[in-house]
Request: fold
Amino acid sequence: MIYDIAFALNQGIVVALLTAMNSVVSNTATPENLRFNITVPPDEVDFFKEKISTVFPDPKFAWRVYPFTPPKFMADYIHAKYEPMTPTRRVSRYMQYARMFLKDIFPDVSKVLYLDADVVVIGDVATLFETVQFSPERYFAAVPHFYPAIFQFGNPFKALREMLAFKQSFNSGVLFTDYTYWNDATDRIFHYYLDWDASCKYGMLNRGDETLLNVMFKDYIQLDRSWNRCGYGNMQVVAKALKKPLDQINVIHWSGGHHKPWKNPAIVYGDIWQKYAPAVDLG
Reply:
């Protein structure tokens, strides 16, 4: 079985990608089954290939880097929702929504574990691939989140029907799905919520692509919380309150704020991130 892992990012956080990849490889019992599917802006493909080859000169696993340019309808939506943006921020927004198009970018993938780059994986991802069962009715899995559904929407009163349909919202930094089941119905739901947000002057989906995924996949398969221990990018008083024993963690995720371990090694679990950080000079 191939364990397909996906990332979507731009070069500003390449060191995070390389660290996350190393953590997955280091903690997977059969790394030869891994395949990393990395999508980046078109003009950064060679940059990523060079950095990955430097850090992993003789890998036991497979990897590939493919370009992503958002289709016009997606670019128009992003511009309308987020402008004004700096050019760098605009590219970053494009890559945030790239996971909606992984089926098109990598047409040969089926089961895929998508990860934000600000993670380290200390569990064996084979557990997910070998135990989680998808079906045409339920083909999306994530970890339930403590973030209340009401905060997902810019206008909770107008979104009341959506909120009542929630079981529990999820953080979108760790997602597991089977693209075999993404079909025309999925596409219609996707466009419906983009149009809904547009009709509300782009102020409804308060947390952007995360809220979009939450409303698209309300009846998701709930993964064990150990697969996305998140919030460690928050203020450190909050991050410390969220700490768990390592035997209760499979993924450490520095979400929730601007505190990242490659910027400040002293933050919560920063020592674990350093353990997997590249040992070579990336230039």
